[in-house]
Each structure stands twice: as C-alpha cells, then as structure tokens.
Amino acid sequence: MYKFTAVFLIFLIALNKHSWAGIQIEEVEDNDFAEFEDFEEDTIKPVHEQPVTEKSVNDQHKAQEDIYETDLDSIVEDEDNEFEHFQDEEEFEGFDSEKVTVGGKVDEKEGPKITIAKVPLHFRTNWNSFYLEMLMIAGLLVYFINFFSGKTKNSKMASVWYSTHKSILEENFSLVGDDGKMEIENRGLIKESEHLYTLWCSGRTCCEGMLVELKFLKRQDLVAIIAQMMKPTQDQIHIKVDMNKEDMDTFVFCVASKKTAVKLSKDMADLSVYCVERRGGEKMGLPSQFQIISEMGEVTSAILDSKITALFNRHPDLIDFIHFSDQYSGPKQTEETNLTKLPSTKKVLMFGFNIPTKDRSVQEAMDALKPLMNMVFYCMDKIKRYRLSKEGKNKADKNRLKVEEAFLKTTHAARAEAAAARREQKRRQEKERILQEDDPEKQRKWEEKEMKRQMKKKAPKMKQLKH
C-alpha cells in the first residue's frame, strides 16, 4: 500500500513538471520580449517570503525617509555648487567687505541688495500739462499768418503806386525802372526787402537821375507791429534827385515838420554846419507844424513861391520834408572817425512824403500823392533856373571857405600824423630795396645818410641872430 502511494506521488510530480514546461514554451513563443524577461528572471534572486508585521512596515517607512533625505541633500549641494561663483571675491571686488557681519563672520545667506531708483511720474495726460506747447504753436501760427498778410499788403501797395505814377514818370524820364544791369531784364520796382521797394529813373535834363524809395511799415514783422502800437509811424516815400553840378547854385535849404526838422538838423552834416537856426513857417505862409532851416533868407523867399506854399497848405499831412543842398554828404560823421579831408559832396533835391493809408483804400491813397509828384518835377525845373544874387553868392562862398578852414584846423594833427606815416613807409621801402642789392658800397652810403638825418633830427634848433 505504501509503495503504491509513493509511486503515485512520483507520477504526479513528473506530470506537473511536464505541464509547467509546456506552459513556459507557449509564453516564450507569444512574447517578443521573452529573452529580456528571461534575463531579468535570471538576475533576480529569489526572496524568501517573510511574514508581514507592524515592525517591518515601520522599518520600511523609515528606510524610505532616509533615502529621500539623502537625495534632497544631494540636490541642495548641487544647487549650491551652481551659484558658487557668486562667492568668489575676485568676481565681485569690494562686495564682501560691504556685507553685514555677525560675530566677525560674513553672512553668506544675505544676497546682494538691489536699490530701485525713484523715477518721477510722467506728465499727466490731460491738456493742462501742455499749455506752454499750445501757446508756442499758437504764437507761431499768428506770426506766420501776420507775415504773409503783411507781405501781401506791402506788395499790393507798391504795385498800385507804380501803376498810378507810371505815366507821369514816363513823361519826364526816358528810362523808368533801371535794374543796374547792362541789358535791362526787368523794368519796374526792385524789391529790396518785404517793406522796401526802389525805382531808379534816368534820362532827363538838369539831373543825373532820380531814386524813389517806398518805405512801408514792417507789416510782416509781428514785433515791429507791436512796437508801432507804442510808437506810431507812417508809410513814406523818399525821393532823391541827383542834380548836375552846373544846374544848381550853392545854397542849403530845408522845410520839414517840427519833429523831422529837429532830427534832420542834428543828423545831417550840411544842415548842422551851414544852417544854424530853425524858424517857424508861419511868416512864409506855411502851416504852423512846419519849420524852415535855410542858409540865406533870399533862398527861402525864392523857393517858397505861391504854388509850393499852396501845396503845403493843401496837403500838410502828406508832406514830411523837402531838403535842397549843394553840400549834401549824408549823415554827420561820428567823433570817433578821424577824417583827413573833407567828405565828398553832391547837389541833391530830397523829398519825403507820407502815404495816407488811414481811412482810405490803397488806390485812393496813391491817387492823393499825384500832386506831390508833380511838385517834384516843378522844383527840379525851378532850381535849374534859380541863381543867387551877387551878395548871396559871396556869402555862400565865404561860408564854405570858413567850413574848410575850420576843418583843416581840427584835422591838422591827424594830417601831420598821416604825412609822417607816409614818409616812414617811403623810407622803409627804400631800405628794403637797398638791402636786396648786393652792393655793399651803396648800403654803407645809405647807412651814413640815415645816421646824419637822425643826428640832425635830434640836434636842438637854434635861431641865427642878424647883426
């Protein structure tokens, strides 16, 4: 019975082994990664199962915590090594010395301090922040608008004046509007600036030519307009006629409004020298606002005839001055200028007229100036015919001789210095010429001559007594 039981057990064991091997063969055939699993199974050692207890579980948890702390310490050490260059003293010189130390040791945990600058807030975005800019833009707009409007008005006034007086000018001159070139390209007014226009006329008896200057207000300049509000001025026309020398006698004469008379008598050289006093115009039938500056009485009565007096009374607001002179040299020279000879003079007739732009159109203002332009041509013909009396001529010649003598006395020292400078310059040139020559005999003779001259100059002057 026991034998039968043992044989039966052996048979069961053999049968189990055979079935297990078959199952393994089928799994290997179905699994592509069987060889790797076999490799893992070979490396894995069999572990004997132990009973699970509370103590073993606690031990496993403790082991896992130890492994976690070890990994964490390694990570922290790696991070510290990553920023290790921040601890290099050579990398940041003077940085460690500024750290706050505790007990003589540097606090490594304290990082660099970052100071944030206090930046002021930007301007607020409302319009009140830009009032200065808006004022500047508004001022520029006003300036440019005034510039173009003033420029246009002055140009219009000049063109209207020229068209109004062109026929009168062409009747009296053969050439109207000379531009100064060999071949005249543009006949008419020449624009010197936005407020100044000129016109040159020539080709008439008794005169070399006539220059007309249209001096308008600086309407294109906003600053000038503000100044004119404080000190009012007017648009003016200045006419200058260059007379021929043989067609005008020797005298100086002027009639001007009171304000202009004071200015002319101070600024003009001929009026300040030859005309000492100013007289009122009432005695000669002129309005009270005019003054007469004349060298001789007979000239005043000869020029201010009934026709000219009537024009002064008819247009007192249009006439500023008339100035006739054979000794015209322009404005008076300042005292700082050292003159060695009398300035050159010309015989001229000068007229100054005001343009009546107030409460009138431009065309009406220019039409009102036509009688005054006719007066210019009347005066030219009158001066050509007029001659001084014998007594007047002698007086005029004496006045000019006195002025010349007085000038020579005041400029004697200056002329002596100028003559000495010329002599010194001549001797210097002679010395340079002698030194450039290679003849020593000539140089020796020139030096002896120069030495004698110097000794004679230094010797005291003695007068010889006659017996």
Tally of separate helices: 14
Mean pLDDT: 77
Q: What structural category do the secondary elements indicate?
A: alpha+beta
Any low-confidence stretches, pLDDT <50, length ≥5?
A: 1-5, 17-30, 32-52, 76-80, 98-106
Q: Report the sheet-strand fraction.
A: 5-15%
**What is the string of helix and strand elements?**
HHHEEHEEEEHEEHHEEHHEEHHHHH
Summarize the main sheet. Answer: 10 strands, antiparallel
Q: What is the CA-based Rg, rounded?
A: 58 Å
Q: Report the strand count.
A: 12
> What gross morphology would you assign?
flat
User: Span between N and C termini?
Assistant: 209 Å
As an assembly, this protein is single chain
Helix share bin: 40-55%
Detailed description of the structure:
It is a single chain. Helices cover 51% and strands 14% of the residues. The protein is built from 14 helices and twelve strands. The strands form two sheets. Strands 3, 4, 5, 6, 7, 8, 9, 10, 11 and 12 form a ten-stranded antiparallel β-sheet that branches. A two-stranded antiparallel ribbon has the order 1-2. The chain is flat and about 185 Å long. The model is unreliable at 1-5, 17-30, 32-52, 76-80 and 98-106 (pLDDT under 50).
Key traits:
467 residues; alpha+beta; two-stranded antiparallel ribbon; 14% strand
Task: Give a concise summary.
The protein is α+β, with helices and mostly antiparallel strands and 467 residues long.
Please specify the SSE layout and strand pairing:
Elements: H1 2-30, H2 34-43, H3 54-82, E1 101-102, E2 105-106, H4 131-172, E3 175-176, E4 190-193, E5 196-202, E6 207-215, H5 222-230, E7 236-243, E8 252-257, H6 258-267, H7 269-274, E9 279-280, E10 290-294, H8 297-303, H9 306-314, E11 319-328, E12 346-354, H10 362-367, H11 370-385, H12 390-410, H13 412-436, H14 440-458
Antiparallel strand pairs: 1-2, 3-5, 4-5, 5-6, 6-7, 7-12, 8-10, 8-11, 9-10, 11-12
